[in-house]
Design brief:
549 residues, Rossmann fold, Luciferase, domain 3, GMP Synthetase, Chain A, domain 3, 9-stranded mixed β-sheet, 5-stranded parallel β-sheet, ANL_N_sf, fatty acid metabolism, AMP-dep_synth/lig_dom, AMP-bd_C, ligase
Length: 549
């Protein structure tokens, strides 16, 4: 008979190891040492070579005085050094702080100061931005220049190049016994559109689990060829640096998101997987249609997040060779952690019905303990009727540790034992969630709630509309009404009256836009439409033309 009391007393070293995505690199570098890991132009490295560089980076960081839980910031495009930072920094016990390359110097300075940056890795392309930000931050830090012969200006504040810095390191890395899986692995800052951005602290355990969740939910096989069309500064590339290491895949690095270039890389390297916002899907489809090269051999799995592409785009994307998986997540939950898990029987449905189903945010990743639509006041689950609005909440290992140095915001976000996303959704009878709006984006017109996402879904059905965003506009009678901003398909025209009439044929009239603006939509670096800018435009338009509705 087993003595159960004694069985639980076995040494921790024998039956416990801290979960960290660093282990994926260790295994893949040993098992698939000679397989390609990184491609960047003419530059190629194997997994053994990549692991060796990551080890040297970790050693160099420790040699430069980096202590456990201290921050290493990096501002860079999707280049090999950015991939190496995802492993080398946490190996050294440090915290990755990948900075949005589209921020201005003032915002970067705030992050450097708030994050208490100890070491700053700077892609030479952003040397001017980094120099100004460092000056404004007013703190001492070691600055490393990630050299690139394409760009002449190196940061004036840099004391050495990245390659020389690596040479200062050895193969020594942090001892596994020093690593706690609850230690921070990344510090990611939110957009800060309504004030200073908040620093989201993520830990090793969550990164490990969500990286596995990516592979499982996307049914990603071993040895994928992954194109870095998604910025690595966005939720650590949605945890995909670690997922690709887990699966022994290839990281095809690239600067920027230019459709023709991405399409060339897809064909040249036989890319199997990529991620991006729906706008990236649109760009790739349009580029494929414009090229003279045959696209019959294209078979690319595309993970997109946010609003699903419209039905017409889904159909042409499928015909072009892009198989789209719709996911959902936030920075506070490690990027995507919910998936529209596709059911085989849906393949027999019409394209229109498939698009409706694909628009749902779906169900939690396998590693998500709980994703639920709750009444935020009663903290009780909303009925699964597809109609009752509630707030999407998460619980489990894929929830952030905290907002860095912001206990008040942390307590509010994690109140009641759940992370409050701020997204409003319904839960369908089959358990699939469908987001109807951000709480701040709900339009209240004459006491009626209007989902901007519902109105946008109708606008996307118009053949001339390639992009759509709906925000609240002031209204003298109803308080506020929908103002639609649309971007048209090249070569196709539409006017405000036509768009409004199109909506009135498909929506209750109180939900229809009363104002329509046709323009290029402002977007973030990840392709998300910046509604805060559109809200300002809507208010200005009302102020200039209060009687127009």
């Amino acid at each position: 008979m087993i003595d159960r009391d004694k069985a639980t007393e076995s040494p921790a070293a024998a039956n416990f190891a801290a979960l960290s995505p660093i282990s994926f690199l260790t295994r893949t570098a040993a098992v698939y040492a000679d397989l390609p890991a990184v491609i960047y132009g003419a530059e190629q490295r194997t997994w053994a070579e990549t692991a060796a560089r990551c080890h040297r980076l970790a050693s160099a960081l420790r040699g430069a005085g980096l202590n456990r839980k201290e921050t290493v910031s990096i501002i860079a495009d999707n280049i090999p050094a950015s991939i190496e930072a995802c492993f080398g920094i946490p190996m050294a016990g440090g915290v990755i702080n990948a900075i949005n390359t589209r921020l201005d110097a003032e915002a970067v300075a705030f992050i450097l100061d708030h994050a208490e940056t100890k070491i700053f890795l700077v892609d030479r392309r952003y040397s001017d931005l980094a120099d100004e930000a460092i000056k404004n931050a007013g703190r001492e830090m070691l600055v490393i220049d990630i050299e690139d012969p394409t760009f002449d200006e190196l940061p004036s504040s840099a004391t050495q190049t990245y390659e020389d810095f690596l040479k200062s390191g050895s193969g020594d890395t942090i001892s596994p016994s020093e690593l706690d899986e609850g230690d921070p692995i990344a510090l990611n800052y939110t957009s800060g559109t309504t004030g200073d951005p908040k620093g989201v602290v993520l830990h090793h355990r969550g990164a490990y689990l969500n990286a596995i969740g990516n592979a499982l939910s996307w049914q990603m096989p071993h040895f994928p060829v992954y194109l870095w069309s998604l910025p690595l500064f966005h939720c650590n590339g949605w945890c995909f640096p670690w997922t690709i290491a887990l699966q022994g895949g290839v990281n095809v690095c690239v600067r920027g998101v230019e459709a023709e270039m991405l399409l060339c890389l897809i064909n040249e390297h036989q890319v199997t997987h990529l991620c991006g916002a729906p706008i990236v899907v649109r760009m790739l489809v349009d580029a494929a249609a414009a090229t003279e090269k045959s696209s019959e051999k294209l078979r690319v799995a595309v993970m997109t997040a946010g609003a699903a592409p419209p039905a017409a785009l889904l159909q042409v994307a499928q015909e072009t060779g892009f198989d789209i998986t719709h996911t959902y997540g936030l920075t506070e939950v490690y990027g995507p952690c919910a998936v529209n898990a596709w059911r085989p029987e849906w393949n027999a449905l019409s394209v229109e019905r498939q698009a409706e189903l694909k628009a749902r945010q779906g169900v939690g990743y396998p590693m998500v303990e709980e994703m639920v639509v709750m009444n935020p006041e009663t903290m009780q689950p909303a009925p699964q009727d597809g109609e009752t609005l509630g707030e999407v909440m998460f619980r489990g290992n894929l929830v952030m540790s905290e907002y860095f140095k912001n206990p008040e915001a942390t307590d509010k976000a994690l109140a009641g034992g759940y992370f409050h996303s701020g997204d409003l959704a319904v839960c369908h009878p089959d358990g699939y969630l469908e987001i109807r709006d951000r709480s701040k984006d709900i339009i209240i017109s004459g006491g009626e709630n209007i989902s901007s996402i519902e109105v946008e879904g109708v606008l996307y059905k118009h053949p001339a509309v390639s992009g759509a965003a709906v925000v609240a506009a002031p209204h003298e009678k109803w308080g506020e009404t929908p103002h639609a901003f649309i971007e048209t398909v090249p070569g196709k025209d539409a006017n405000a009256e036509e768009i409004i009439a199109f909506c009135r044929e498909r929506l209750a009239h109180f939900k229809c836009p009363t104002r329509v603006s046709i323009q290029v939509l402002p977007k973030t670096a990840t392709g998300k439409i910046q509604k805060f800018e559109l809200r300002a435009l809507a208010k200005a338009d009302f102020a200039e033309n209060p009687g127009r509705s």
